[in-house]
Amino acid sequence: MSEQPESGHGQTAHPSTATYLVIAAILTVITVVEVGVFYVPAFQPILAPTLLVLSAVKFALVVMFYMHLKFDHSLFRAVFILPLLIAAAVIIALLFLFRVLGA
Amino acid sequence: MSHAATAHHTSTGLDNRKIAFWTFIGSECLLFGSLIATYLVYEGRSVAGPTTHEILNIPLTTISTFDLLMSSLAMVLALAAVHRGDKVWARVWLATTAGLGTIFLGFQVYEFQHFVHEGLGFTTNLFGSTFFTLTGFHGAHVLVGVLWLTTLLVRSFQGKLGPDKALNVEIAGLYWHFVDVVWIVIFTVVYLIQTTPLPTA
Amino acid sequence: MATTAVPHAPAAPAAPRGLWSWITTTDHKRIGVLYGVSAFIFFLIGGLEALVMRLQLGAPGASVVSAEFYNQLFTMHGTTMVFLAIMPLSAAFFNFIIPLQIGARDVAFPRLNAFSYWVFLLGALFMNASFLVGPLFGADALSVAPNGGWFGYANLTSPQYSPGPNIDFWVLGLQILGVASLAAGFNFITTIINMRAPGMSLMRMPVFTWMSFVTQFLIITAFPVITIGLVFLMFDRLFGTTFYNVAAGGDVLLWQHLFWLFGHPEVYILILPAMGIVSEVLPTFSRKPLFGYAVVVYSGVLIGIVGWGVWAHHMFSTGLGPIADSVFSASTMLIAVPTGVKIFNWIATMWGGRLEFRTPMLFAIGFISMFIIGGLSGVMHSSPPADLQQTDTYFVVAHFHYVLFGGALLGLFAGIYYWWPKVFGRTLREGPGKWHFWLMLLGMNLTFFPMHFSGLLGMPRRIYTYGADLGLDTFNLISTIGALLTGVGLLVFMYNVWASRSQPAAGKNPWNAATLEWAIASPPPVYNFAVLPTVSSRLPLWTEGGATPIPDTPPEPVHVPGGSYWPLVTALGIVIMAIGALMHRALVPSLLTGIAGAAVVVVGIYRWAFEPFEV
User: Fold this and answer.
1) Which of B122, B136, C198, C494 is the most buried (most CB within 10 A)?
2) The domain at B16-192 falls in which architecture?
3) pLDDT at residue C204 above 50?
């Protein structure tokens, strides 16, 4: 695969300005929903999972589109995902070890 | 002595600097992961002093979060402008990104001094120590980003930020978006998922 | 693969001379030599610390040193050997050898490479300066060196229980060293991913490069964790935060978790490069390719990944609970599998080969046997109930010295003897080499084998003396004699270095080895390869047409980047900031020094970023 080393962008097209604006709008809406969910008493029992899912979506959108990971060489994905998984595993393990989670 | 242009061979067709920077971002996941883990592990264990429910200001932080999200939008627009050689809009969007970042820092400074005023200092209790360290590290990263973007802006005004320098802007963008993404996690985990039990009447 | 056209300045003259050329060097070969020499000097210092410890422990109730000084000795011995000896010795090989093995002219970021070295050296000097600067803190000389163990457990290290500057030196020194390691990690990962010669796929890379690759990933993921743990400790000590303050609700186990989350990957960082070296030396002196190359590579990768899941086996005595104990016990037992796989592959490599027992081969075989012993005691630790007896005793000291001295260090000496001709143009002499090996092997076993017994009999770690009625005398005496013998072996090595100056020129490939670094002159020209080869084999020099020919002189001038002093300046700025933090008891001078250091860093980075520099 021949790519320009300076930019590292693939042959696929960049997202357009419209796409970026749509992403920004989605991020805004999700943030509003997150804060809304925070204030609605009915959501309290499932607040944490709901918010984690919503923020994971925001995380993924920024990483895949703004950081262009969806369109770039899979090497970058590998180099980012591996430490990210380790970090997530460490957080979860420590939550169990300090009895924040679990019985 | 010839000045022959020599080809630089790469194994992947990708630029060294972009590979190195994504590796750095991976490493930062562990840095912030450790800070977040500590915050979560210590949540609710403060023996005295103010805790989350008493002091965190959700409406204000929602605005600063929105500010940072919009700064990421400005950043991708800046990169697009540099790619197409649009000097004016490159400068507009770079300045906007840096400006929104500065506004975010302003919110942080306000919040910090307000908390101190309310009795939550760096050393007051576990919440103070973990909260200020986590958000302080994040804020320091934002500050470095603002300085980096300002440097790029100056370079642009010096006529040294053409499309051939797009990678420099792209890498600054990767940094900036990552700092935004870390805030997404912090906003959710610190501000919205407050697990300290509410005090009973 | 793709290429870019980059306009170049005219080629620089060959290898510049003089002190300034070393200070400003960005050449990976010179940086490798700098790391090697510095690491060896700190290895001698760490060894001296060990010798004094052994003299103190040679007889019960001895008073060679005080208890307070003994604490400094074992702390600095451990910290020095791990961070200032083994790691930089490995870095010496990463630097010199990796670009040569993958067919590159240098690493991806030569100035960042120089920066890593200078930060390491200044950090090492910073930490060791603590031995001398006691009077600056109103204390005696030899009293303010770090003294809380190489693992610095909270809350012994808290401002309440360690009010002096000792732990400040330790915390700040480690933070400085961490910066060096991280920078090098980003550099080598990029280099290995992106600068391999045409035809060198990942599965054609030499095993040393592969193991170093895994090591760099461990570095960039593990070091941030200890950075944060140290930040918490630093904030507790400098500002009075409560991270490790039990009265405020803090948990001292947080320190242990953060430390060992780093600490366990760290031991794989210490051993994997040596395993890589052994995987090069054995095939060369068995006249046979490495048995099961792919499996050896995958095992290394697996060790790196599973190595992230075993850390709490250092904490079996802290009351983690049965579930945590069982999980970490299982993962620790599991990691013995890929390790064992490697050992079987090494043995199979030698099996049926035409063995040549030259010095590098002796050290490589020594590595395997000593590492097996250390691995066996390690597996014994993996059982929590058994470990409850073993932990904090000399049994653990025996284990980790077998894997780190018998393992990592012997492996590194294998590399030193193996690659010495490539670096310096002459082989080391065989006679003294063999004396060195046998003296060191005998000395090492005499020192550490008795510790299995004294440990199981209950001798605790980190004590400066012991009672005469405990039955530990003989074991300790033997250990002390062994330590002296090891020292003699080291003197023989140093004699060998001196005496080998008059050896005949080694030529390109004195060992008739298979990998690319042996295809060029010894020492290599400043540009490494006159023409970058195209590779079609895992063993290019043992395969017909395995690599395209490399002429002795380049057909057209090769651009060689010049030097730069901004990496050194930036490194100095970092250390000045650390000195400022060290002075925290005097607020204004501390702040001014810290700000001055930060200014130097900022100026250094900007000048570095904007100076004309072409790779």
Assistant:
1) B122
2) Up-down Bundle (1.20)
3) yes
